[in-house]
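I am going through a labmate's work and have reached the protein record below. What it holds is a sequence and that sequence's fold in token form. Please read both lines and tell me whether the tokens look consistent with the sequence. Do not assume that whoever made the record got everything right. Thanks in advance; the entry in question is below.
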Amino acid sequence: MTSLSFATPLAFILLPLLAVPLLRSSTPSISYSWIRLLPADPLSERLAWLIKLLTAMMILALITGMAQPYGGQETVTKIGTGAQIVLVFDRSASMRSDFAGSYMGGGKHESKSTIARQLLQEFIQSRDDDFLGMVSFSSAPVYVLPLTQSREAITAAISGTQTGSKGTTNIAPALSMALDYFADQPLTGSRIIMLVSDGAAKMDHETQLTLKQLFRQRQARLYWIYLRNNNGVHLTESAKNSSESRTPELFLHQFFQSLDVPYQAYEAENPKMLKESIAEIDRLENKPLVYQEKTPRHSLSGWAYAIALLLMLILLPLRVMEARGLASFSTLTRESGNG
């Protein structure tokens, strides 16, 4: 049901002004020798009251316009297919290198960050009903965009990750911030954390426990698109002879596997594999998604001012009639008095 609301309801404090035309006498006082000699004039009395009422209605219409009424804003339940996705994008210095491991600054290949942005933008444009948010990180996380269906906003957010790539890869705070996106969201469709990163950093035991608890509470699944360069470690390798300081990616992968939530890692060591990884996620995550959407509101102030203008146009000839009647009556009384 369409509801009527007001953007500036404070304007209604002017409502007492409605009493001004009703209490004010519209007929000037005229001196006459004997009032009983004056003929009754019910038409003039009715005209005077009509003018008062129309004037009060005009004031009411003006005040209503000043209160900026609007209607049409409703909450509509819609059903689509998709997911609630938070992109967690690595902006550390290593993302400026290409897949061959060389840093940009003279090389002919595009950086991993550039290719990932391009493919992610294609990914979001193909998913109409998804709610997408974004966190970027290097040494610290940055809150970029809340969950939204605005493709323009998320495209701009992804494009904005091309600047300021610096620092180390500190994934844990970024994941924690991304999981908080789901704190006040209804549980519908899939909740996805999509981590796009080329490396990892050490994570202490307390941080691991906190992340495990958050993943279970938020009921989110995790996809890690691991942008491995030619010299990087494979996630399928054995960590038997490795250490967390030398191969943190392997230990991070093992930690993700212990989260007790759906988890999948995709190794992408070239643009083709990256595109295939994103396409695979696109294929998997298309569950029914129930969400609520607010319809745009439309202003009704114009109607209120139009009514006030119409009432004013009606009042003008009535005022002219009243003025002429009073002038004739005044002339008549003066002639009678002189006679």
Q: What stands out?
A: The radius of gyration is 36 Å. Residues 301-338 form the longest helix (38 residues).
